[in-house]
Amino acid sequence: MEKQFSGQNQKKLGLSQFVQAIEASRTLAITTKVTELRRQGKTIIDLGAGEPDFPTPAPVCDAGIQAIRNGKTKYTHNAGILELREKIAAFVNKYGGQYQPEQILVSAGAKQSIFNALLAVCDPDDEVLVISPYWTSYPQQVKMARATPVFLQASERDHYKVTAEQLSKAITPKTKLLMFNSPSNPTGATYTKDELAAIADVVAQHDIYLLSDEIYMQLVYDGLEPVSMAMFPQIRSQLILVNGLSKSHAMTGWRVGYLAAELPIVKAAAKVQSHSTSNITSISQYAAVAAFELAETELQKMRTTFAERRDFVTQRLRSMPGVSLSLPQGAFYVYPNFSQYFGKKYQQKTLNAALDIADFLIDAAGVAVVPGEAFGSNENIRISYANSMENLAIAMDQIEVALKKLQ
Ligand SMILES: Cc1ncc(COP(=O)(O)O)c(C=O)c1O
Fold first, then answer.
1. Smaller CB count within 10 Å for the chain: N or C?
2. Ligand 1 mean position to 246 CA, how many Å?
3. How does 308-334 read in b/e, with b if 16+ C-beta sit within 10 Å?
4. Which one is the CATH code of 17-55+297-404: 2.30.29.170, 3.30.360.10, 3.40.50.300, 3.90.1150.10?
5. pLDDT tens, 28-46?
């Protein structure tokens, strides 16, 4: 008789307890829903996706094509080609780091860099402090590293930033690592240099690692300059710096991320990578070298466009009754609070959580957003303004009209 596969609670042919405790990515779930609705012929404006709508700059694409033509299509060094690691080290050092190319590990996106780092330093009894709202993958990755996520709440009133004092109180003897992300996905909260210094000082007083995810570092507005945790010598031995080209260079599909840290950490993370994926695609590495050679004006153009869109979307949302928001100063997300609409009804269904608001917006306004539950809060939705001004204008009009339908 053919053996049956049955998922839960089955000892032999079931899934591991471990994987059943991991939640599927909710942001990817939205993408799936949008694809399905579009297949049914519905027009949906997707403000859920976390990626720049710009094409990858032409010189970067050309470098990738050249790499193929030149036969650069074989395995490379596990940590990435030296030329790329040199570029990365130079970039990180421009912002205060003091890293050698051997202290850089190139991975398949910042996502893999974070995972490698967690596996490299966490043991099963360890706790990882995650500032909430958080990027959706942090707690799941912590669990996959067999450690425990512990949440530290940042409030809308404080523009979703935690203070040094809050952090001090949250650190316990079990804390192994602080997960830090500025500018933040999903809130766009961006710490100033002084605020970063205060956080760094607290970290320096404790025996913990600081994983600074700086993937949105170059996307800052209102005259802010990109700043990195690498500039604080007091935390050099504790810092695991993560960055990548996905967001700043519109290169999400190329999968280029990296980690910079003290040598033993990099070696440990490289060991993890060497047994799982090995080097990232050789072609992407050559494209990434070209990305680091791009003129600053190329990136500035994208930044200016994002800033205009942010201004437009935040103004429109603020003009809608019952919607509150903290002005995001980085990344390309707005995180408005819609809890004033809780208790209202749409087609007999009462809205009680961000999940309901997101469902309502996709059904009544044809606009896809990500519900805050994906990021640890159930009153907000994440709107990505990495979309054309034309689409953003239609989306805001449609949201405004839809909200008026609520009873
Ligand atoms: C905060 C944050 N970190 C890391 C990543 C991963 O980026 P990638 O793996 O494309 O480099 C993302 C992507 O959405 C993100 O928002």
1. N
2. 7
3. ebbeebbebbeebeebebbebbbbbbb
4. 3.90.1150.10
5. 777 788 899 999 999 999 9
